[in-house]
Design a protein that fits this description.
Oligomer: single chain
Radius of gyration: 12 Å
Structural class: mainly alpha
CATH topology: 434 Repressor (Amino-terminal Domain)
CATH architecture: Orthogonal Bundle
Number of domains: 1
Helix content: 55-70%
Order of helices and strands: HHHHH
């Protein structure tokens, strides 16, 4: 049976947005520091994008935080 990960994606996106805003960074600033387009980061934050491990690594690079911090949220 296929699991629905929509809620997980949404929670992850909310966490990413909280981290970004806590660092006072815009989507474009994060994008400038990594290999992700700002529109894709926005989709992640809104839970519209199923994030791969390589994307998590790039997000961490863009936010200048350890990748494990991106996965440290309640689900």
């Amino acid at each position: 049976m296929q699991k629905d990960y929509t809620d997980l994606q949404r929670k992850f996106g909310e966490h990413v947005k909280q981290l970004r805003e806590g660092l006072n960074l815009s989507l474009r600033e994060v994008s400038a520091n990594c290999e992700l387009d700002h529109s894709n980061i926005s989709k992640i934050e809104r839970g519209l994008f199923n994030t791969q491990l390589s994307t998590i690594i790039e997000l961490a690079k863009g936010l200048d935080i350890p990748a494990k911090k991106l996965l440290d949220f309640e689900y």
